[in-house]
Amino acid sequence: MFVGSPQELADKIIGLVNHLQLNRFMLHLPIGSMPHKKTLEAIRLFGKETAPIVRQHFESVSKSK
């Protein structure tokens, strides 16, 4: 389970992907255990803030290879 700010979450995802040498990452948000408004906010934050950080990191890593 990853919990934290968008930057903290991005750092955790990047660290996990690098450590386990993954080529895919799937996000699962537990629908129903949080109020609907908070679930939508989590989705928005992931899409607008976290995902771009992760994407940019791996794009820069692949360009340097």
Automatic annotation (TrEMBL):
InterPro entries the UniProt entry points to: Luciferase-like_sf
SUPFAM superfamilies: Bacterial luciferase-like
Superkingdom, taxonomy of origin: Bacteria
An example Gene Ontology molecular-function term: oxidoreductase activity, acting on paired donors, with incorporation or reduction of molecular oxygen
Name of the protein this chain belongs to: Luciferase-like domain-containing protein
Organism: Streptococcus pantholopis
